[in-house]
Design a protein that fits this description.
S-adenosyl-L-methionine; alpha+beta; RNA methyltransferase activity; methyltransferase; MeTrfase_RsmB-F_NOP2_cat; cytoplasm
Length: 459
Amino acid sequence: MAFPPEFITRTKAILGAEYEQLEEALSADAPVSIRMNRKKSDYTPAGEPVPWSHTGYYLPERLSFTFDPLFHAGHYYVQEASSMFLEQAVRQLINEPVTCLDLCASPGGKSTLLLSTLPEGSLLVSNEIIRTRSHILAENLSKWGYPASIVTNNDPTELGELTHFFDVIVTDVPCSGEGMFRKDAGSMDEWSPANVELCAGRQRRILNDVWNALKPGGLLIYSTCTYNTEEDEENVQYIVEQLGAEPVSLDIPDTWQISGPLKYNHPVYRFFPHKTKGEGFFLAVLRKDEGEIIRPRQSKDKKGKDKTKAPAVPVQAETWIQHKDQYQFEVRGETVRAFPKEYYPLLQQLYSLLKVIGAGITLGEVKGKDLIPDQSLALSYHLNREVFSSCEINWEEAIRYLRKEALVLPPDLPRGYVLLTYKGAALGFVKHLGNRANNLYPQEWRIRSGYLPDKVRLL
């Protein structure tokens, strides 16, 4: 790999003699790792466990993820191993239900990890400022299947108006991407010292914009995928000096080979590819001062009060999920949703202040007198399978379904909405008409590739 000369000079300055080892590691193949969804699967992949993750595994080879129906069914998430270290901060420091914000969340790796790791009864708000990416985020969270989740599409300044709203804020901030050079050669083309400075300044603005939304005593988890101190230790020092936060230590075994600070003396956690099996990553945890008091900002109701009577929830919708007494059902436009009752007042507040892309379980869409079941329902672990006819399909049929192609089901199958399963996993719905089946897989989710590899490697 031909690294930018200034990157070499700067990184040698912070690593010294270790730089040659880093360069050698970056010339090797990147490890492949996944994290299992234990609400959907108890399968243990062949491969070495990721030491800092209860459900992470290194794979001996890269699989054909695009052509694995279980990947699309949310049974696992393909995530870089170093970034799974977020799990340690959650497990060691958060012991009761919280309201958590994942501020820069797309495509969803850390959000799916948070849903799996936060204490039962927690609520996660996952935000992405870029609209197209926010829909990718919503898709990945729907596939993961957890109900206590909200996806928003807002600027950090708008989230900062939610004074003292969150117990935990995770900020995996946009960075210069030095730690991803091995996986993304394009990131090298965009790298420059000027871009490092630009990113460091943008990160501080993001932190300032959202700081008001963190409760006194709450935790900020700050991370980047870069090596330089400007975006890492210097920004941690900024949070300490300018925002008055206190760094928090984690208990980490020496055998994990995670490095400490290169500047100042705060507890921070650095991942270098020549020491740990993964890409470059940096993480620090900071606690907000308990005594901080900020006057609430004056927020305007951006949508105004809707004084029209809410449409009635179709009766059958409440039978489509398990534990229906735990949910509040609503109809917004043509969309029917179920959301955990405990947090429904907070959802109502967010509707008025933020752009909510998705929330809870989308049960279906009202079309005239019909209610069409939604893909989010199919992939929720609270789906009540007993109310739907189901049909087990093979791999070839599953790929046709995921490409949104036509399917022919057994003629003796009851007509109406049918849940397709693959290896027992819920995959999605079709409407069986007898001689054919209407494919209800979301158009924007479909596998676009018409290519099939000669050898398909599946989990």
